[in-house]
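Ribulose-1,5-bisphosphate carboxylase/oxygenase large subunit structure dump, as promised
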Amino acid sequence: RDGPAILQKAAQTCTPLQQALETWKDVSFNYASTDTSDYATTPSVA
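structure tokens r here:
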């Protein structure tokens, strides 16, 4: 939630961070996950 404000404040004293934020400002990483589980359920002996 507070991430963007924290990054903007940190960028005031960090030129590389400021440049990165400017470069990536319009990029969105919102996508549906395509990961599938890598395990199979095995029956347990009880």
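Residues 35 and 41 are 17 Å apart (CA to CA).
lmk if u need the other ones
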